[in-house]
Amino acid sequence: MWTADALTLRGETIRGASDLTALLTRLSQRGAPLLEHLPPLPEDKALLSVDGGRCPEDGATVEFDPWEANAHRCSTCGAVVQGDRHRLHWTRFQHLWLAERMAHLATIGVMGRDHKAIVRAQELMRWYGERYDRFPNRDNILGPSRLFFSTYLESIWVSNVMAAAFLLREAGVLDDTTERLVAQLADAAASIIGEYNEGFSNRQTWNNAALAAIAVWFEDAALAESSVEGPAGLLTHLLQGFGSDGMWYEGENYHLFALRGLLTGLGWSRLAGVDVVQEPVLLERLGEALMAPARTALPDGTFPARKDARYGVSLAQPMYLELWELGLSWMVAAESDRAPAIASWLSSLYRLSAQAAEPFESYLHDAGLPPPPSDRPRTRADLSWWMALEMLPTLPPAEPWEPETVFLVQQGLAVLRHGARYASLECGRYGGGHGHPDRLHLTLHADGVHWLPDMGTGSYVAETLPWYRSTLAHNAPLLDGQSQPPGNAVSEAFDEIDGWSWVRGRYGAMVRTVVAGPAYLLDVTEFADAEPHTLDLPWHLAGTVTMRTPGTWKPLEDSGPWVEHADICRLDPPGPVVLDARHAGSRLVLSLHGAQDVVRGLAPGLPPEGEPTAFHVARAHGSAIRMVTLIEPVADGPGKGIAGGGGGGDVSEPATMVVRGDSIEITRHGAIDRHRMTDTGWTVEHDGEESVLGGLRAQEPEPEPQPILDLRQTTRIEAIAPFVDDAPALDGSLDGFDCANPLELDHDDQYRRSEEPYPGPEALSATAYLNWNHEALYLAVEVRKSQVYFRPRDAAPLLLDNEVDDIHSDGIQVYLRP
Fold first, then answer.
1. How confident is residue 642, by pLDDT bands cut at 50, 70 and 90?
2. How far apart are CA 806 and CA 8, in angstroms?
3. Which of the four, 180, 402, 420, 601, has the lowest number of CB atoms within 10 Å?
4. Percent of the chain with pLDDT over 90
5. Dist CA 327 CA 325 (whole Å)
6. What is the rounded distance in angstroms from the CA atom of residue 155 to the CA atom of residue 203?
């Protein structure tokens, strides 16, 4: 974001820098079709539905083409689909794309001195300014919105509109009519966005950014202060939402989304007089936030799909490259010692093979364009209008990027690297509403294969969503066939020495220890309780998996709602289980001790396709269980070597393992490694030398971040539940209820806002009565509502968002926490 004087200087810089000149030229080329004719302008509000935007034949997403509103091509089979649901799915992206194009056109208009671009940008602003209040504030899911179904989308859209208008106004080329309509739109949008504070949601970061932009436009000091420095403002998000290890508390996917919103907002805050670059504490935390995804990145350049994340998304996406371009520019300006590391990481991403740009709500710069050739990396000329105004003229020289073994304390995530081999164990915080019940999940990437992935989450409106949010869909332990209850795990140890590293995490009564050496991983999963239980340890291995252990397979009748063709093999007597996985010319062998049964079945695989994929589960029963697994990348023939471990030669024969009490012996090519747990850590005897891994730690995971002052905090209403000898009638009346202690629900702050504000207790309120006896808890709720609506039992499915249809009918939801 730039003032008039800065824009003049930036124009001179662009004309003197080859990278910036190439970017501006590419931006002008991409903007040329918009100058020839207008794309379709959506008159409707977007709608989130189960079937909109999905091919009815194979369920794949349809491609977004900003020049075609009614015919949408399947990304997998190529079929063309039509209909209102698909058009309203397209509408969401079209509104966002058009706002981006306003900023895009404004940039080439001002920096490239293109009068036609300035005219077209203002034409689009006026079109929306004249119609904004006509879009209905209804059919929302996450907060009020006119153009979309959630407030954060309105904020992303507004941020781009305000950037376009501000650029033109500062350059002195914004006409009076457009300025008036933009001001009118901004005022209305601020009212909608400002009424819906989401606290420490990643979405609130974008809400703050939009409000900061509007504050700068109106020179509104109070609005700027609340959106930047308020209890849930940008600076509080930076210091609390991004932990001391730099990672956003909801994982990499939402880290990257929140980081772009944060950087957008901080750009506006600089114009409001709060410059993060000038504050050492804020600069340090921002540096940590910029580098956190680099520390956890997988060897193939993607980020791990932890929590509610897309699977297999490259960090060399243009949208992500811009985060580090901007961060590098700010760090160089501040003379921060973070700049060399960011430059090194950014340079490594520019060397990766180019991938087609993903359609992100916050970045649609490449929408409708053919993907770049896969044999050429991305360049700085592939980036968006924002970088024309912000990035350095040239990338500084950088040392080669060398990722390291690392422990993110607040995330509770340990990444154990050896060469190109990557293993991680998830402990720490659950991760808010986007967290998964996957504490102690193990990820492994070796030999270029993602052997043990975290599959993340597919579409939020797909029926498979509950599967991806289950423990069984992860490489994480579960008890008695039930997903882990939401909760935090504790990281008890982490250390690295002599080429060995280890981590130990605890979740309730389950403990998992992972030891990584030059050639293999050792995984020890333990459980202890006074009562016997069943412990399941799933293994979602890539490729074709063969169980080398002999046994008799029988059908497993009760395998759950998502598992098909399940079989069970009872090991009698219990002995080592060997799973041999082969994929893309690579091989991985698992030797597992301590299982009594092995279950195999088919379940949804990697999203978004989710094709049925085989997986295995090691199962043991008892009150004290210990499963020990040797995980070894093995070459199939001479000269292939070990993944990331150096060596070479003929190593096609897997290692063997013997477990004797607390001692574990692993034999490879005649050499024996001896592992044992000690009071101070873990000891490995290797090649006649002893490596002692310590790093024991007793730290509870930090709670999820909370605002210093929670403006959304509701009035806590409590009621006593009287004892009754006889059960009430339970016939729709209050007969038999002791009504002496009512629970009144009639406050504004008890109303969850999504569309209209609270209409008052006369139009909507309730009184609840709770009684109990030794048989049950009894509940009656008397509701007062001006208009009551119940969906007919035989009504057709609505196929909206990811809620059951009854959410669109009057009803009562009861939550019981024993």
1. very low
2. 57
3. 402
4. 80
5. 6
6. 9
Tokens 């049950």 identify what position?
776
Which pLDDT band, with edges at 50, 70 and 90, does 646 fall under?
very low
- Residue 43's identity, in one-letter code, is E
In angstroms, the CA 590 to CA 571 distance is 16
pLDDT for the residue 156: 98
Q: What is the pLDDT of residue 644?
A: 38
Global pTM?
0.92
The beta-strand segments (E) located in 49-124 are 72-73, 80-81
Question: How far apart (Å, rounded) are the C-alpha atoms in residues 258 and 111?
Answer: 28
How far, in Å, CA of 157 to CA of 149, rounded? 12
DSSP secondary-structure letter at 240?
A: I
pLDDT per residue as tens digits for the range 283-311: 999 999 999 999 999 999 999 999 999 99
Helix (H) or strand (E) holding 33: helix 18-36
For residue 675, give the H/E element and its range. Answer: strand 671-678
d(CA 37, CA 457): 39
Would strands 663-668 and 671-678 be described as parallel, antiparallel, or unpaired? antiparallel
In one letter, which amino acid is 770? L
3-state secondary structure of 333: helix
Cα–Cα distance for residue pair 598/149, rounded to 1 Å: 45
Note whether 209 and 194 are within 8 A (CB): no
Give the span between the Cα atoms of 744 and 715, in whole angstroms: 11
- Provide the H-helix boundaries in 420-485: 465-468
In 3D space, the residue among 530, 547, 622, 546 whose CA is nearest the CA of residue 582 turns out to be 546
**Could you tell me which residues come within 8 angstroms of residue 260 by beta carbon, excluding any fewer than 6 positions away?**
319, 322, 323, 362, 363
